[in-house]
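[audit] Reproducing an earlier prediction to check determinism. Same input, same settings, fresh worker. If the C-alpha cells differ from the archived copy the diff job will pick it up downstream; this log only records the rerun itself.
[audit] input (239 residues):
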Amino acid sequence: MMTTINQTPDPDRLEDLQDDSLQTGIADIQNFDPEQVEGEELTPEEEAALEQAESGPEGEEDDGTSGDADMDQTPEESFPEETDIEQAPEDSAPGGSGIEQQQEGDSDKQLKKRPYLAPCLQRLRAEINRRWPNRDKRSDRSIAAAAGGDHRPNSRACVNALDIDKDGVRVMDIVNAAKLHPSTNTIIHNGTMWARFRGFRPLRLPFRDAYRESVHISILSTPQAEQSKRGWGIRRPKK
C-alpha cells in the first residue's frame, strides 16, 4: 500500500511529541560534547565481551523485500502505511509582519514550527519495528523539547536523536548497523559510546548508567544526514 507523506506531523501519532520525561542517565549527558568527554577505552577483550553478551530475539525473517535497494526508493515505495515518513513541516506560526519575524531569535522561530523526527531516523525505527514487531517500546524517545542535545528540535525543527528500548531487540545488531550508516554521529548504550570522530571505537563513559534501558542513536546535524533515504540494514539474515 502506498504511504502518505505528512507535511505536518500528527501529535496523536507521535506520542513522544509531548513527552519530555527522560530516563535515568540522560539528564547527565544531554548537553555534553562527545568530542570533549573523557572516558576509558575498552580493551579488545571487553569489546568482544559486548558482542558475546548479546541477548534477545533474532527477530522476523527477512522476506527479501526489505533490502537496501528498496530503502533507497521513495518513502511511498519503501514503507507500510503505519510508518509514514514526516517531512519538514511548514511554519505554523500565526501571521505577523515580516519585520517582526526577522527580529525574533532563532530559538523563537524554531518553537513556531512543529518538531519532527528526522526522516533518516524514522526509517531506522521502521526497520527495527519490522524486524522486532513485538519489542518493548516503553523506553523509546525521540522528541523532547525541554531536553538538551539532539532530542531538542534544531533550527529546522528537526530532531536528530532516537532512543530505542533495549528489551525485545538485539542491541548490538542495532549498534553495528548504525556504525555503518553515513548519517550516524554517536551511539550510546549502558554507559558505552561509539562516536564518528573516534572511528566508532567504544569508549566507557564516566556516567555508567547513561542509556541503561535503551540505545541512543544521534545523527549529524545536516539536511543531507536528516533526509537520507539510505537503509540501515536492520534485518535478520536468511537461514
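[audit] rerun output stored. Observation attached for the diff report: Confidence is low (pLDDT under 50) at residues 1-29, 64-83, 91-104.
[audit] end
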